[in-house]
Each structure stands twice: as C-alpha cells, then as structure tokens.
Design goal:
mainly alpha, globular, disordered C terminus
Length: 309
C-alpha cells in the first residue's frame, strides 16, 4: 500500500512536491529556538546533544540510500564545519535575545548568498537587489535597537551573534548544495552532523558550559532536537537537490514566523512596534533580493536546476 507521501507525490509535480517537503521541513526547524531554551544545558552543548541524538537515525537513513554512507566529500565536511559555527553563534543568540530576533536576523542568509554570487562569482545583481540590501540593513538595525530590554540576557550582543549566523548558514547552505550533486540528502546530513558534534562539544567545554541536562525535561528537549534535526535539515538538504538555491532560501523564511508564534505562546515574548517593523523590513528585503534570481531560474529547464536525488 503506498504511503501518504507517495500518494501526494503522485498527485503533484516533482517541483511542487519538493516545495511541500521544504515547507514542512522549515516549519519543523522553527521549533529549534524553543527547544534550545528547554535543554537545561549551555547553548553550544545543546547543539552537541542535537547532533548526538540525530546520529543513530541519520545512520539508519543514510545506509538505506544508494551507495550507503560511503566516504564524505569535501563539501559535506565543509558543511559540518559551517554548521557547527552556525549553531554555536545562533544558540548563544537565542539565549541572549528574543526568539523572534534570533530567528529573523539569521535568516538574512538569502541576501548573503546573493552577495557571495556578486563578489566571488561575478554575478552582478539587478538594481532591485541593492534596494533590498539597504532595506535589510535598516530592518536589522531596527530589530536590534527596538528590543524592550526584557528579551534575553543581553539583547544587543544576541542580535550581533544572530546576525553573524547569516554568514555561517550561508556557507552551510552553499556547501550542502554542492555536496548534493554527488550524494543523497541523508548521507550529506550524516557527515555534516558527525563532524559538527565534536566541534560543538569542544566549544561547550572551552566556554565552561553545563554539558549535562539537569533533569528528564532537559533530556527530552535534547532528544526532540535530534529528531527535529533529522527531518528538518534532512528535508532542506533533500530539497536542495531538486530546487534552485534561491527558491529554497526564500521558502525557509517560514522559520521565523513559526519561531515567533511559539515564542509568544510559550515564553510570552512580545514584539515592540519598532521590532515588528524591522522584522517586516528584513523579511520583505530578503524576498525582494531573491525576486530577480527566481525569475531567472524559472527560465532554465528543470533538468538544469535539479541535482541528483
């Protein structure tokens, strides 16, 4: 009997199905900031446990892909390094500032990816990108300046850390995209996770963090983060093999929406009017920056935009 996923895949186009998977994965990843605060460990230690609890399931899933786990490519290993930096800075940002700020600021990733293409790959963006970049910077400043002082232990520093995550996550994003050209999603996610786990443990020990959760609730949050990592990051990696990077980058912006709603519901966090305006500017600017890229991609035949499964 076909699974629900296979039935949905039979009813829609491959591109639409990939978008559905990506949207679900992004919603799953939106839970991450909430779980970090519930782990009862240090920020980097929370990332370490996220990877540790994810590895058994990733090992099983990766071994079932064609070719099994096999040896990692240099891109998969580079993805692990960038992801360890990403989680280290982001988890500290989550503790120091609001859930909404930490999630929105780190999602400047699409702008950074486009800027990378301009400076390194010599792909000059349209004028609309320059407008988007100015709006994004204005929005980021508004979010940092508009905090009410009661959202985390050090909102200004947390905002800076969260903003830096856009650079690390962009590196991870581009490395996974490159790795997916020759490997399955779960193999890439497995190797990135395996490399990232000891790096995060080293960071946690060097900063004197609490490594072991204080009780059952903390352990439950760590285990939940592992499951979230497999299906969230695994889903994003899978989509990156089938969709253009620009479309993927825009779609994952559902994360701050989910995180903000959960932060309001669970922690009673509120957005000041200036923060709300800043967040709207940031998200609008990111979408605007990708508009010309999406238009350009849509003109490319489907066989040129997707990588191997």
């Amino acid at each position: 009997m076909p699974s629900p996923a296979s039935r949905v895949a039979a009813l829609v186009s491959p591109r639409a199905f990939a978008l559905i998977v990506l949207l679900i994965a992004a919603c799953v990843l939106g839970v991450a900031p909430i779980l970090v605060r519930l782990t009862e460990t240090g920020p980097a230690a929370a990332g370490f446990w996220r990877f540790v609890f994810a590895l058994p399931l990733l090992t099983l899933l990766a071994s079932r892909e064609p070719g099994g786990i096999a040896a990692p490519s240099k891109w998969a290993l580079l993805a692990g390094l960038f992801f360890a930096l990403d989680l280290s800075f982001w988890h500290y940002g989550i503790v120091m500032t609001s859930v909404a700020n930490a999630t929105v600021l780190c999602n400047l990733t699409p702008v950074v990816v486009t800027l990378f293409g301009w400076v390194v790959l010599k792909e000059r963006p349209a004028r609309i990108f320059l407008l988007a970049l100015a709006l994004a910077m204005a929005g980021a400043f508004a979010m940092a300046a508009g905090a009410d002082g009661g959202q985390g232990t050090n909102p200004p520093l947390g905002d800076v850390f969260s903003l830096s995550v856009a650079v690390w996550y962009s590196g991870y994003f581009l490395a996974v995209k490159a790795a997916r050209a020759t490997a399955g999603a779960m193999r890439v996610t497995f190797w990135a996770t395996l490399l990232g786990a000891p790096l995060l443990l080293i960071v946690a020990l060097a900063l004197g963090e609490d490594i072991i959760p204080a009780g059952p609730a903390g352990w439950a949050a760590c285990a939940a983060m592992g499951i979230m990592h497999v299906f969230g990051q695994g889903g994003v990696a899978w989509a990156l093999g089938r969709l253009p990077a620009s479309i993927t980058a825009v779609t994952i912006l559902i994360q701050p929406v989910v995180a903000g709603l959960l932060g309001w519901w669970i922690f009673g966090e509120t957005l000041t009017p200036i923060q709300a305006l800043g967040g709207a500017l940031v998200l609008g600017a990111v979408v605007l920056a990708q508009r010309s890229q999406i238009r350009k991609t849509d003109q490319i035949p489907e066989t040129e935009t997707g990588a191997s499964a």
